[in-house]
């Protein structure tokens, strides 16, 4: 199980009226069963209908009542709506406390959890099918640059030991960076525009034992998250797909809390035109000077730069570049202001 635990250990104070409303909304057997399921991670109406064996309109009514009471929260993902226990409200803390007090050996609760496991297994198989369809093309690109574990080690080194209060992975894809960094974060959010990729990411979070990560469908130019709320934002192998990378960096900057850090991982300039033609790469890498100029325009100070070069001398190898930048309103002292060759 991941060390990722975004939930405070104590319940925040709540007004009498709000507490009565929350208790009334939770005080029904189906709704308590829903809360127990959502305590394990986000689910959609279809998942809950399958697990609980109740009609979609009935489940939707229960969800609406609990959402209005602040026990749970809802977010859209294309035509789907996903629900989770509210993370930052007193009612949400109460909902999680109630769910955790349910006896896991209770026959109804245990049966629900068994059906939840079956739903997750089906989801994982569907995600794996999608992944397998694209695995050959992804593996071909991976073979051209430094190994993923080397890149991940460099990212972890750039993050350092400072606790992460709120992490945002923009363009999360299969959730690789999210799974890597979520165990260090009090809150972890991944955003991607592609519903199928989010399904893969959701399955990967479950395989990694990470239950609290938030996954949202949204545009990188208008991410569906709070501005000024994240002390670490990661943009990993995303910018080369975009028409307007500087705009994405400005949006990422606006999401940082004062002194927050942005980590950008992408390719150095290269001439592999087949990536543009076959894999929708808009940009064939980024020069260090260009990226740092864009970061400055976004209100960020570049703190460090590193490169990971693929082994071998073949001309068709890709170099991975890693930039760390900081919101200039408050300069952290975690990473020295210097160029660092990480490989």
Automatic annotation (TrEMBL):
Tell me which SUPFAM superfamilies the record gives.
S-adenosyl-L-methionine-dependent methyltransferases (SSF53335), Winged helix' DNA-binding domain (SSF46785)
Q: Name one GO molecular function term.
A: S-adenosylmethionine-dependent methyltransferase activity
Transmembrane ranges, per UniProt, are: none
Where in this chain does the record put each HTH arsR-type domain? 11-106
What Pfam family is a match for this entry?
HTH_5
Looking up InterPro entries in the UniProt record yields:
ArsR-like_HTH, HTH_ArsR_DNA-bd_dom, Methyltransf_11, SAM-dependent_MTases_sf, WH-like_DNA-bd_sf, WH_DNA-bd_sf
**Per its UniProt entry, which superkingdom is the organism in?**
Bacteria
Protein name from the UniProt record? ArsR family transcriptional regulator
């Amino acid at each position: 199980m991941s060390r990722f635990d975004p939930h405070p250990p104590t319940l925040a104070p709540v007004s009498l009226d709000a507490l009565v409303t929350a208790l009334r909304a939770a005080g029904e057997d189906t709704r308590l069963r829903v809360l127990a399921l959502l305590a394990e991670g986000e689910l959609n109406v279809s998942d809950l209908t399958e697990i609980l064996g109740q009609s979609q309109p009935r489940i939707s009514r229960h969800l609406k009542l609990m959402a209005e009471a602040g026990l749970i929260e809802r977010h859209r993902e294309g035509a789907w709506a996903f629900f989770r226990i509210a993370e930052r409200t007193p009612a949400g803390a109460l909902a999680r406390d109630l769910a955790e007090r349910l006896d896991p050996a209770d026959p109804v609760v245990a049966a629900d959890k068994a059906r939840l496991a079956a739903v997750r297994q089906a989801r994982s198989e569907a995600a794996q099918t999608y992944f397998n369809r694209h695995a050959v093309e992804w593996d071909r690109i991976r073979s051209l640059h430094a190994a993923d574990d080397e890149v991940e080690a460099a990212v972890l080194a750039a993050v350092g030991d400072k606790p992460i209060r709120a992490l945002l992975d923009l363009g999360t894809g299969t959730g690789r960076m999210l799974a890597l960094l979520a165990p260090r974060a009090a809150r972890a959010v991944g955003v991607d525009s592609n519903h199928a990729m989010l399904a893969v990411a959701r399955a990967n979070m479950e395989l990694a034992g990470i239950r609290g990560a938030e996954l949202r469908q949204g545009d990188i130019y208008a991410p569906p998250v709070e501005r000024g709320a994240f002390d670490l934002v990661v943009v990993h192998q995303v910018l080369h797909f975009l028409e307007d990378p500087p705009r994405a960096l400005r949006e990422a900057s606006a999401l940082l809390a004062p002194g927050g850090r942005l980590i950008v991982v992408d390719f150095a300039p290269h001439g592999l035109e087949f990536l543009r033609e076959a894999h929708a790469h808009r940009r064939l890498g980024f020069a260090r000077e260009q990226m740092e100029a864009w970061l400055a325009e976004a209100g960020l100070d570049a703190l460090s730069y590193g490169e990971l070069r693929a082994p071998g001398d073949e001309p068709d190898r890709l170099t991975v570049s890693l930039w760390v930048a900081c919101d200039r309103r408050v300069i952290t002292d975690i990473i020295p202001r210097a160029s660092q060759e990480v490989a």
